[in-house]
Specification:
This protein has 448 residues and is of the alpha+beta class. 35% of the residues lie in helices and 25% in strands. The chain contains 15 helices and 20 strands. β12 (270-279) and β13 (282-289) form a beta hairpin. α7 crosses α8. It is globular. It binds ligand MV4. Residues 131, 156, 163-165, 200-203, 208, 232, 235, 277, 286-287, 436 line the site of ligand MV4.
Length: 448
């Protein structure tokens, strides 16, 4: 096992990783920008290294500085968290070339899943269901038109280098196709420096359901069930649940089995998430994330498994101790992302926290780097905390969530707390009856 790990991240996730390390007897090194010198992640780590000025490009993304911080402190491994360098294959490669362990999958698997065309092709061959569409990229209008006729309209043009919703264009009918293709290509070129695009049938009212996996270096792959992340706005998840209100145990086992068999054949290592659209009882692969995700705690709540601990263990070569049959899903969990933003316009609201009180009690977890007097800097994302609530069943979970939201106090900045106060009282939410468009439609109705 590692003696010292460097945490290449900030905010709540840096604290989360620090906690796992401490419980494993591992010393920790925090990195931080000059804007984060007073951050909780710096205070809680054993050592810290300032890696640059506030802009992430010069600090949290500054690869030479991060490698130097490892060498100076003698850290043997780097946990990248989410965002920043977590899915940068070149970074994982550089880390490896310096004899440091990257806590995550191989650079090859990160690179494969970063290319959405190659990823789709690979998982399809491994038996994962995909959305009907082009085999590989589309270049010409005639080719696009032929495929669209075959799969039927509406169709969606997606960027190979995209993901997270950037660079997508819908064509409702044949006369939309040429412009959709040209626009998608030029936007992809401008955003990613790569104009490769592919085509899929556009699914109109799906849910977003993702399956969590963990794999060791001894050929064992486990699935930890699914999360329903359909409640999102502009591709930012807002509320996540485990399990999905739309799945039963048999469907969970079925998709979990398909995914674990596929990743076993792929020789995958570490934690990963396979994202699906789910419509009319069928799963369609969209992307694979090769990192720890923001919403991992809902899976931890229903399985009792510390996903970060397992990431560190498998990265060091230890085998997963559990078997699939030992993984039992207990109750229901919901996470609400507490952002430093206006609850209904989502306008960022950085500033000083003048009052803070975290909720507690049975089944309540609050992951946050906030404290009274902390100044949320304007340079990074607005996630200030995550409220995770676990109950025996979904109904108990929802009632507990109402109670926990009433206990939570964050003063001095605007937060998304009022949004959740409303959502936990909406009939569709109480019924679990929502899809990827529900939240934006609800917000549009509210502001009308
Ligand atoms: C789709 C889709 C409908 N049909 N693919 C958006 C993010 C990217 N990861 C994939 N996305 C979508 N792909 C087909 N064939 C609708 C979306 C989509 C979406 C997906 C998940 C969560 C929220 C979303 C919001 C809008 C569109």
């Amino acid at each position: 096992m590692f003696e010292k790990v460097l945490i290449a991240n900030r905010g709540e996730i840096a604290l989360r990783i620090n906690r796992a390390c401490k419980e494993m007897g591992i010393s920790t090194v925090a990195i931080h920008s000059t804007a984060d010198a007073e951050s909780m992640h710096v205070r809680l780590a054993d050592e810290s290294v300032c890696v640059g000025p506030p802009p992430a490009g010069q600090s949290y993304l500054n690869i030479p500085q991060i490698i130097a911080a490892c060498e100076i402190t003698g850290a043997e491994a780097i946990h990248p968290g989410y965002g920043f360098l977590s899915e940068n294959a070149r970074f994982a490669e550089i880390v490896r070339e310096h004899g440091i362990t990257f806590i995550g999958p191989t650079p090859e698997h990160i690179r494969l899943m970063g290319d959405k065309i190659a990823a789709k092709q690979a998982v399809k061959e491994l038996g994962i269901p995909t959305v009907p569409g082009s085999d590989g990229g589309v270049t010409s209008d005639t080719e696009a038109a032929r495929i669209a006729e075959e799969i039927g309209y509406p169709v969606l043009i997606k960027a190979a280098a995209g993901g997270g919703g950037r660079g997508m264009k819908v064509a409702q009918k044949p006369s939309d196709l040429s412009l959709a293709l040209a626009t998608a290509r030029s936007e992809a070129k401008a955003a990613f420096g790569d104009d490769a695009v592919y085509m899929e049938k556009y699914l109109q009212l799906p849910r977003h359901i993702e399956v969590q996996v963990l794999a060791d270096s001894h050929g064992k792959v486990l699935h930890l069930g699914e999360r329903d992340c359909s409640l999102q706005r502009r591709h930012q998840k807002v509320w996540e649940e485990a399990g999905s209100p739309a799945l039963n145990a048999a469907q969970r086992e079925e998709i979990g089995g398909v995914v674990t068999r596929a990743l076993n054949k792929l020789g995958y290592l570490g934690a990963g998430t396979i994202e699906f659209l789910f419509e009319d009882g069928r799963f369609y692969f969209i992307e694979m994330n090769t990192r720890l995700q923001v919403e991992h705690p809902v899976t931890e709540a229903i399985t009792g498994i510390d996903i970060v601990r397992e990431q560190i263990r498998v990265a060091s070569g230890s085998p997963l101790e559990l078997d699939q049959k030992d993984i039992v899903f207990e109750g229901h969990a919901i996470e609400c992302r507490i952002n430093a933003e206006n609850a209904f316009t989502f306008t960022p609201s950085p500033g000083t926290i003048t009052q803070f009180h975290a909720p507690g009690g049975l089944g309540v977890r609050f992951d946050s780097h906030m404290y009274t007097g902390y100044r949320i800097p304007p340079y990074y994302d607005s996630l200030a905390g995550k409220l995770i609530v676990h109950g025996k069943n979904r109904n108990e979970c929802l009632m507990r969530l109402r109670r926990a939201l009433d206990e939570l106090v964050v003063g001095g900045i605007e937060t998304t707390i009022p949004l959740f106060q409303k959502l936990v009282r909406e009939q569709d939410i109480l019924n679990g009856d929502y899809n990827i468009h529900w939240l934006e439609q609800w917000l549009a109705k509210k502001s009308a």
